[in-house]
Amino acid sequence: MKTTADTATGWRGSREGWIEAAYQALVREGVDSVKILPLAEQLKLSRTSFYWFFKDRDELLSALAQIWAERTTVPLIAATDAFAETETEAMLNVIGCFLRTETFDSRLEFAVRGWGLKDPAILSQVASADTRRLAALSAMLERWGHDPEDADVRARTVYLTQIGYISMQAEETIETRLSRIPTYVRIYTGHPPAPREIARFRARFGL
To answer: Which range marks the domain in which residue 91 is found?
Structure first.
């Protein structure tokens, strides 16, 4: 039984430490690298200390899948509901979500999609996330007056473009990406963003 003294010494590490090491392994090398012994060696802990926090490897993988949802799907859906005075500003909220690691973990998204190619259960979670994200985007567009069919196609255009950036691991400077955003917004919504909206948007990135 774990005691207060055990917790204070940290000689078994911590649950967060194991998860962070597993996260780094997943985004760096893929799910096959998330194994107990290599993680223990990396953390300079005994293999048995892992079982103080997790029943088995599957429980650790489940924790990673939960973190993926919290760092991607949850903030993206929140961005579709964020306050906006105009449709173009609403779309900028969504685009801004994708551009920040704090609100959309692209490395983790890429890794989990690769994981899904090997694990039907994860693939099912990815498919469910795609459905929820597209539904949120469509609902946002419908709130701004698009009929359901038009909203669905525009939502897919937004989403598949952004996931394409991630899947292709496209490399652009932030300035290049931001320079294209007014055109993206016009394509996604049918309206160009106002200069003041773009100015506020750029200010988020210190530009």
So the answer is: 72-204
